[in-house]
Amino acid sequence: MILQQWLSGRAKLVFIFILINSRILSGNDSISVTYIANCGFLIEIDGQKIIVDGLFKLGHNHYPTPDTSTQKLLVSNKYPFDNINLILVSHAHEDHFDSEMVMNCMMNNPSARLLCPAQVIDSLKKNRNVYNNIRSRIIGCNPDIYTSMYFQIGNTGVHACRLPHPGEKYRETQNLAFLISVNGKAVFHTGDTDPFQLEKYSGIRLSELKIDIAFLNEDFAKAENAHFAGEFISATHNIAMHLPDPAAISWLDSIKDKPYLFSNPYIFLNKMEKKVFNASQEKAVTEQAVYVDSNTGDDNNPGTKEAPVFSINKAAEIIRNRYLWIICMLSLVLPVMKWVPKYLNTGSHKTHIPGSVNSAFSDSRQNS
Q: What single-letter DSSP state applies at residue 17?
């Protein structure tokens, strides 16, 4: 009874306000992941269904590919790939992207949006008739190398980070890594990012953003490279991907009894396997958005307004300032809380004002 009184009135309002700003009250605390193949995943967060690098058929005769039955499900708006909200493609290589599958999926999911680099759009344009039908839902993203752009697409925020693909012959490949957030829950998909150029990624520092899940490609996931993932991403859960089947089976053995390498390591060994991960309660939400407008744009960037380059370091600064503000609020409110119970017990606050909201509320409780 005393606790109810203690949290009544203004004290209760202030407490709820602090909780909301701390992102503690932000839906359930789980992220569902379904493994498609290679780097392809269906990610479900608070009702949002996102496919990342899952619409492909070929694997360079080296990497696992979706079964034929899964390919049909992916493009036909059937469970579990029904009502897709967002499709993300990191780059145009065949083990991440198939233009026909992407277009069919978009045609059969009329609400789905596609976020991808210009080289993917160039491939889609080869089928001009279909491309014109889905063009207004395509978001072209071409940040400068080592920088990122942020988009708010419905309830989903996406930082598209332009990071280099390993290998000199792929120097011109437009590779995107994606930081995805919904209600503060955050996952990071590396795409085919090269971890050996980490010193150049100072404009995209993720480790302060409290990422829940990192999807790590084969270079980031190697035991000898674990420090790259820790320094650059520092996620709560680390999922290895982009490994040929024999290497995938042996990956867990390579890090066995070495808990200091990766936090909560995991690898999917079976296609269409689904796993639910718990998200951390402290959420880090980045700000400054480019809001999608289907009535603007051009062939190089259809469906979006002009996007400013945005450093994720700025997001980290925003988060630090936000938590400092919350601490200041707590320092002001907590001393007041000490005398609230005594004040409530005195009865001096129970002023009856005829016709007021307080009196109406009090009367209704008495009559219930």
A: H
Q: Is the pLDDT of residue 121 over 50?
A: yes
CB crowding 225-241: b at 16 or more within 10 Å, else e: bbebbbebbbbbbbbbb
CATH code for position 142: 3.60.15.10
Rounded to whole angstroms, the Cα distance separating 148 from 253 reads 35
State how beta strands 176-182 and 185-189 pair: antiparallel
- Token pair for 179: 């930081």
Q: With 0-12 CB in 10 A as exposed, 13-18 as middle and 19+ as buried, what is 119?
A: middle
Q: Are 281 and 315 part of one and the same domain?
A: yes
**For 336-366, what is each residue's pLDDT tens digit?**
666 655 555 554 433 333 332 222 222 333 3
What are the tokens at 212? Answer: 């829940």
Q: How many residues does the chain have?
A: 368
pLDDT at 331 over 90: no
C-alpha span between 21 and 350 (Å, rounded): 30
Specify the number of domains making up the chain: 2
SS3 letters across 48-107: EEEEECCCCCCCCCCCCCCCHHHHHHHHCCCCCCCCCCEEECCCCCCCCCCHHHHHHHHH
Same domain, 262 and 308: yes
Q: What integer is the mean pLDDT of 172-191?
A: 96
For 28, 34, 139, 237, 268, the CA distances from 182, given in Å and listed in that order, are: 11, 17, 18, 17, 23
- pTM: predicted TM-score of the whole model, two decimal places: 0.74
Count Cβ neighbours within 10 Å for each residue of 69-89 and write b for 16 or more, e otherwise. ebbebbbebeeebeebbbbbb
DSSP category for residue 197: G
DSSP code for 235: -
Burial pattern 37-58, b for ≥16 Cβ within 10 A else e, equals bbbbbbbbbbebbbbbbbbbee
- CB proximity list for 326: less than 8 A, separation 6 or greater: 18, 21, 22
